[in-house]
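Human:
Care to share another protein and its fold?

Assistant:
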Amino acid sequence: MGGSTIAGPGSPEARSAGGNELGDIRCQKKDYPFTAFSEGPPMRIPARFPSLVLGPVFVLAGLLASCSDARSPEDSGPWEEAEAEAATLDQAVSSITPEDMYYRIGVLAHDSMGGRDTPSPGLEMSAAWAARQFAEMGLEPGGDEGSFIQRWDYTPRRGGEGEASPVAVPNVVGFLEGADPELRDEWVVFTAHFDHVSGGPDETGDAIYNGADDNASGTAAVMEIAQAFSMLPTPPRRSMAFVLVSGEEKGLLGSRHFARGASLPQEAMVADINADMVSMNWPDSIFVFGREYTTLGPALDRVIEAHPEVGISIMENRWPQMPLFFMSDQAAFAREGIPGIFFFSGLHDNLHRPSDELEEVDCDKAARVARLMFHFGFEVAQAEGRPVWTEAGRELLAEIQGGEG
């Protein structure tokens, strides 16, 4: 999440209460039959992820040598094809699991990624891995020149020395075409930023700002949602865009590039559903900012009422003094007149610190938030009409667009 480090209610007590139908699975290594990215037995990879290559300079051998119960692409046959064709909405959403969240957050927040600052080698490796994952899901590339990578120019600042030369940094974009000929030219966009920050060592000497909650968790959620939608035998009526952006921590720059029409016409994007930090604090609650600005708010209320099995409720804003709606990527879309909404688990003491590690986050909560977002995105994609701004939203638009340079 963009902004300075702010302490919040990230106590162990806030994360320990509650239970749900997915079980009480956290992201501690002891809860799993493997230890990711360390010496010991190889990581068990689901069959749908037979390989993992993070770019020419980073290969996780343990992931390539998955356990014997994982199938290779050559092993795929009629059973796998029939399973995919028979996937129902419930089966698709059930593919979003705490184990998968642990896997994805673990890759992005691994020490070898170096914190994923914009720009950095770790950012590039993360983008290459995510692009490979989108390809294996069967999404269509939405980036530059038929690829999943979309480049935009970032100009680093050098303090008193002025600006450096621009650096082309990556977004990752995957598309799923809608099924309705009348609506498939309209797009529901899911976003999450996969960049984080860098800085000096903390009191323990740790200088890697892993960004597990911020925002490997939101990135993993969007990837799980993309996978679930790709499993449906018939896609939703509207088309879906799954966009992992960089430069959020520098001022929402990657999302601004996309929202200004880098891949899709602005008028074709009906909504942005953004995930930023979805794996901490209260286990059964989430904050959702922007509900009052568009008809996305009432739509989300209907989805929550229709899916009590997800076990997630909405909390009222605990930080009304802070402009939180403007501190994540949906704000870049709102500035362009595109309705946006923001799922957020709240501020905590690990924010923008090396202590934002895999072991601190709640993978069960993150999976359930992703399930809720899947149902919500499906509702928006299936609706007869596109979301519209409320009176409060129109006032917001007048304010932010009037001050836009």
